[in-house]
Design a protein that fits this description.
heterodimer; A: alpha/beta; two-stranded antiparallel ribbon; 8 helices; about 45% helix; B: alpha/beta; Rossmann fold; six-stranded parallel sheet; 6 helices
């Protein structure tokens, strides 16, 4: 079965996944309100469209590639939900507050936070300037801390709040090609645990998705040279493990955002075809 | 004479580590400014290249993610990572030129296990554990060894556990299979071992020095206690 066919059947399934007490079927996340950072492209787009197919309204946050984010919003709206884009640079300390304000204005509350946006320059220690190292930390680690913190009052109000951190297999094992990226993902693994511990009594679950090699157009901050390097590495990886699709992470995000996963918190799930088995 | 730099002398185990390494013939340097290029260059001018670098930054912020003091969490966490980055990069580059040396992180069980009250510390230590692994891959090829110590709650920090920390900290003693907290001497012994030739084959490793405390479950609600409730 081709990826396109799999996506088609998954969308159809998600639109009729939950059976209501009346016996009618309804989308699994009908009426839920979600923020997806970096939700306009790559893995974020896969997540946005799967959440939308499952009935969730979505605020898509992007920065620098807003045309792609707008296209994704149109595709989400075509699935029958409300969707809007918002531009914010997660490298800035006030971005999280702005995003949360916008989400509350547009959606009327927040049930699901998907912290997905990331910056991966693919540089070695010697190649990193301190400023660029710091920016990776800001976007990949400290902005999720700020976002989780800012969303907590609304997630509590929701009664079934869900936080999904999109990390990486490099939160589990080192990369060998991007020291700052892996460091930030290592930190995310602990944000996951601290937030899960603190928020469990408020019925808020916090889980992480750890994608491995995933077929995406390009990554934020990637130069042509970096892109070539990554594509070469992914081609070697794909020979053995295949390459994931953004919708693979999207499918898991729907499950983690739904009531089906209410007893699952503080866990991280790899979506990597089995490349990291320890 | 071998030399070692311990970046943060305020770490509760730093004194014991320094004394142990002095007894083994090391010249010990304590502290410096590792928050900027200028700071680390000044430190390098004072110490010259060293044989061992011990990264002991342990800033934290006592408070919950839901408290609304997020910037205090970010600021403390950032500082731990920034200091390790500057020190490891500059001192590590000199070690790599000499094709020998050791970098050791004096960290905590909370690099692996949440605190329930100090996300700034645990998030930064968890990030540094992965930073260590990347350094071990990178510098390992240049003949350096980079390792990580996860130290359990220290006896020397006893007063820290009498503060507004979680009730779970009160039963550290009952939850530790060896029935006591870790001591600074335990930590110093592990440091001496990892810097010794006996550990020549150990690179990219995390050593738990916590008496097995890590294995207890997260079976308590983590809540603030009022000052009045404290023993």
């Amino acid at each position: 079965m081709s990826q396109k066919e799999i996506d088609h059947y998954t969308d159809a399934f998600l639109r009729e996944a939950a059976v209501l007490p009346s016996g009618e079927s309804a989308p699994l996340l009908k009426g839920r309100r979600a923020i997806v950072t970096g939700g306009g492209k790559g893995i974020g787009k896969g997540i946005t469209l799967r959440l939308a197919a499952a009935g969730a309204d979505v605020l898509i946050c992007g920065w620098g590639n807003m045309d792609m984010a707008e296209t994704t919003a149109q595709e989400a709206r075509a699935l029958g939900v409300r969707a809007k884009t918002f531009c914010a640079d997660l490298g800035q300390a006030d971005a999280a507050e702005k995003i949360v304000r916008e989400a509350v204005d547009f959606l009327g509350g927040i049930d699901i936070l998907v912290s997905n946006a990331a910056y991966q320059p693919n540089l070695d220690l010697e190649e990193y300037t301190p400023e660029r190292f710091e920016r990776v930390m800001q976007i990949n680690l400290w902005s999720p801390v700020r976002l989780v913190s800012a969303c907590i009052p609304y997630l509590k109000e929701s009664g079934h709040g869900r936080v999904i951190l999109v990390s990486s297999i490099h939160g589990k094992r080192p990369s060998g090609f991007d020291i700052a990226y892996a460091t930030s993902k290592g930190g995310l693994q602990m944000l996951l645990r601290e937030a899960a511990l603190e928020l469990r009594r408020d019925n808020i679950t916090v889980n992480a998705i750890l994608p491995g090699g995933t077929h995406v157009e390009f990554k934020s901050g990637e130069t042509f040279q970096m892109h070539q390097k990554r594509v070469k590495r992914q081609r070697e990886y794909a020979r053995v493990f295949g390459t994931g699709s953004p919708s693979d992470s999207g499918n898991l995000a729907v499950y983690l955002a739904s009531d089906l996963s209410a007893y699952i918190t503080g866990t991280s799930i790899r979506v990597d075809g089995g490349i990291v088995l320890f | 004479m071998k030399s070692v730099l311990i970046t943060d002398p305020k770490h509760p185990a730093a004194g014991a580590v320094a004394r142990r390494l002095e007894s083994e013939g090391y010249r010990v340097f304590l502290g410096g400014d590792f928050t900027s290029r200028e700071g680390v260059r000044a430190s390098l001018a004072a110490t010259g290249p060293v044989d061992a670098l011990i990264l002991s930054g342990h800033k934290g912020y006592t408070g919950l993610l839901s408290d609304g003091n997020c910037e205090a969490i970010v600021s403390a966490g950032q500082e731990n990572i920034r200091e390790a980055y500057y020190a490891a990069r500059h001192y590590g580059a000199l070690m790599a030129e000499q094709k020998r040396g050791s970098i050791l992180f004096l960290s905590s069980s909370h690099a692996k296990k949440p605190t329930g009250i100090n996300a700034a510390y645990s998030i930064s230590q968890s990030a540094l554990e992965m930073f260590m692994k990347e350094l071990a891959l990178d510098y390992g090829r240049a003949g350096l060894r980079v390792n990580f110590l996860r130290i359990g709650p220290l006896e020397e920090e006893e007063k820290a556990f009498d503060s507004l920390l979680s009730p779970a900290d009160y039963d550290v003693l009952t939850k530790s299979p060896i029935g006591r907290r870790t001591t600074a001497q335990d930590a110093a012994g592990a440091v001496a071992f990892l810097l010794s030739p006996d550990a020549a084959g150990i690179n990219g490793a995390c050593l738990d020095v916590d008496g097995g405390l890590y294995f207890h479950y997260m079976d308590r609600e983590y809540t603030f206690k009022k000052e009045a409730d404290l023993p």
